[in-house]
Structure formats: C-alpha cells, structure tokens
Amino acid sequence: MSKDLLTYQAVQDYLTGLVPPREKELQEMEAYAEENDFPIIGPVCGYYCYQLARMIGATSVFELGSGFGYSTAWFAKAVRKNGGGTIHHTVWDEELSGRARRHLVRLGSADLVQFHISEAVDALKKTDGPFDIIFNDIDKQAYPASLPVIKGKLRSGGLLIIDNMLWSGRIFDKTDISPTTLGVQEFTKQITNDPDWIVSLAPMRDGMIVAYKK
Ligand SMILES: C[S@@+](CC[C@H](N)C(=O)[O-])C[C@H]1O[C@@H](n2cnc3c(N)ncnc32)[C@H](O)[C@@H]1O
After folding, report:
1. Does 150 have pLDDT greater than 60?
2. End-to-end alpha carbon distance in the chain
3. Residue 31: partners with Cβ closer than 8 Å, 6 or more residues away
4. Ligand 1 centre and the CA of 124: distance in Å?
5. How far is ligand 1, taken at its centre, from the CA of residue 68, in Å?
6. Which residue's CA is the closest to the ligand 1 atom numbered 16?
7. Per-residue confidence (pLDDT) for residue 152, from 0 to 100
8. How far, in Å, CA of 209 to CA of 165, rounded?
9. Measured from the CB, is residue 30 less than 6 Å from ligand 1?
10. pLDDT, averaged across the chain
11. Rounded CA gap, 194 and 144, in Å?
12. Are 68 and 29 in contact (CB under 8 A)?
C-alpha cells in the first residue's frame, strides 16, 4: 500500500491483527462494548497496558474510571504473571462495578481486584500508595485536576497511562471549546511541560499517553 493510501483505520486494523488470541470472556466484553457503544480501551491498548505492566513488573495498579472491567482484566492478567498484587477498580456506578466483578470472577482474576464504588480521584486520595501504575480513563474534563493527585500517589519509576489523548481528533479543532476537549488539551500541556515526567503519546486507537515518573 502506498503511503497516500495508508489510512488511520488501516493502521488500527493492522495493529488489532497483531494482538495474540485472547480469552472468550474478553472477546465477549469487546462484543458487548461494540453493541452498546460503551467506550473501552479495546484489544490493542489493552495488550499495550498488559505489556507495560509486565515490563516494569507491576504488582500495584490503580485505575480511575474502570467501567465494566475490560481494562482491569488486562492489568490483572499482567499482575498475576508478575507474581500477584492488587488492581484497584473504580467506578461511581454500582451496576457497572457488579458487572465488572462478574467478568473478573469468570476470568479467575477477582481475587486480585479491589472494587471501589466512588468518584475515582476521591478513591485514589483515600487509598494508600504508592502505585506502580496509575491508569486514567475518567471523564475528560476532570483530567487536569486529577494530575497532582496522581503524581503524589505514583512511585518514582512508575507509569501513568492515560486514554483518549487524541479525543477522536477533536484536540485539533480550534473552535471546539467543550470542557472535555479543553480538559484533554490542558492535561497534555500540563504533563508535557512538567520536567518530572518523560512522556510519549502512542497513536493507538484514540491515543494513549504513557508517562514515566522520574
Ligand atoms: C471510558 S469508560 C471506562 C472504560 C474502561 N477503562 C475500559 O477500558 O474497560 C469510563 C467509566 O468510568 C466512569 N467514570 C467517568 N468519570 C468517573 C469518575 N470521575 N469517577 C468514577 N467513575 C467515572 C464512567 O461512567 C464510565 O463507566
């Protein structure tokens, strides 16, 4: 394929094809998300989170905005391989928390997961750290205010992973002044201008920032 014909979608489809086969339960979660238009990180970013967690031997992970547990399942798989530990699942919706628990039970990972039904940044403030990985996927207008809290709870040498940093391309639209788009733009500015972080943005799916805390 020539460079001119290489579309963003073609790249995403190619990346999806490189992800190894995954459990039936994970595939069912992906199908549910697709049918119900529920935003999950999907297999490419899920596998990337798994890889990052394996690479640093993560045993403590705090997730902000965990939905029905798809991203949690990838972190749990890595933490199990790393010898065990804890993944904190946070969502403010009781029904979603229960749904996540049922999926994680079926995946054999529920023993590693602590479930918080709460506003996620509040839950992080109240939970003892430091964590090896903090994963942020809450409502985008809340991203900027979450950063100082996250920074205080992540260990030196730990990773912050943040989803939706391309925000379906809305970050490029100068006329878009919605709180969510401004939240993603502001957060990107904050973290890339802070010398305490080493930051890169991987253009997988909707864009994932991985930031290493020095
Ligand atoms: C994008 S979805 C999560 C998807 C999940 N990380 C995954 O990839 O499987 C975000 C979820 O977190 C919830 N949420 C958003 N902001 C939140 C907050 N500040 N505190 C708690 N839950 C939040 C949303 O209602 C939604 O269920």
Report:
1. yes
2. 40
3. none
4. 14
5. 9
6. 138
7. 98
8. 7
9. no
10. 96
11. 13
12. yes
